[in-house]
Amino acid sequence: MDLGRREIEEIDEELGRKDRAEEGQDEVGLSPGSQLFLEPGTNCCIIAVIGCKTNIDPAIVKEGLKQTLVHHPRFSSKLQI
């Protein structure tokens, strides 16, 4: 069975809906901006710069992101943290 890109995206979307339903999450529609960022072929990177008065330990920041932001239902990343 040879599936095209659109069919694969539809299957992924349906599986995502089932996963959210099983987890008891309400499905909330995406804003137009969010929809644009999720379009195939949109290459957009959001880079954040934060200033601190004291030095920070990057390992602690990465661990904090792994425990919080990465588990947010609308967060997605192709980069490894």
From TrEMBL:
One of its GO terms (molecular function) is acyltransferase activity. It comes from the Eukaryota. Residues 1-34 are annotated as: Disordered. Residues 1-23 have a biased composition (Basic and acidic residues). Keywords: Acyltransferase, Transferase. This is O-acyltransferase WSD1-like isoform X2.
